[in-house]
Amino acid sequence: MLVDMIGNRLKQLRTDAGMNQPEFAAIVGTTKQFVSQLESGKNQKPNAELLEGWARHFRVNLRWLVSGAGPKNAPVPSDDASDWSDIMGVRQAAALGDGQMADEYAETHKLKFRAESLRRKRLRADKLAVIYGKGDSMHPTIKDGDAILIDTSDRTPKDGRLYVITYDGELLAKRLMELDGAWYAVSDNDTDPKWRKPRRLDPSKGIDIAGRIRWVAGWVD
Fold first, then answer.
1. Is 169 left (phi over 0), alpha (psi -120 to 50) or beta?
2. What gap in Å lies between CA 207 and CA 168, rounded to an integer?
3. What are phi and psi of 11, to 5 degrees?
4. Residue 82 phi, psi dihedral angles, 5° rounding
5. pLDDT tens digits along 162-186
6. Strand 199-200 relative to strand 182-186, pairing
7. What three-state secondary structure class fits 44?
8. What are the pLDDT digits (tens) for 59-117?
9. Strand partners, 110
């Protein structure tokens, strides 16, 4: 059976790399259960996108992985456009200390991220955006000028996670904390006098979560 053959080759790739099923699944952003079903032949409809992701990661020919035909090894791929995803970047700063007034007309540009990395994290390029931090109240997690990738599809607050929010008309990058049914904005830099203590968010002032922070990058001194 075709699926069984694919499952055998997937298992070969995994075991040759010394990976367990969760590690192998994480490469393409799927689950251990899905990998187990493929390897056992229980799944009769392999996902073409996931197979392509494994083939690219292990540098094997997709044709070999699917059918067993042709050479196993693939040439090292070039960094063509299909390997990358464009993410919209906004030149407006999300304040890490004092609020930055939200501006829907902020200048935009594009940044490129590895498509495979986004798949591993189960992120959709069309739901992502990059803005920049301003201030030092989130130091050392986020520093002044750091690029901040946010997932605009993840807008339900979770205790302890990082978010970009609009509060009282200002754009902020903060850690959200839930306490006794209320939400607080927390700064990671406890030496900042204005943000030394968690600040309770008053719903009457308007709270809008732009998205959860998933990636931060900046210069290292």
1. left
2. 7
3. -65, -35
4. -70, -15
5. 999 999 888 899 999 999 999 999 9
6. antiparallel
7. coil
8. 888 888 888 887 888 665 555 556 788 888 877 777 776 655 555 545 577 788 888 88
9. 88
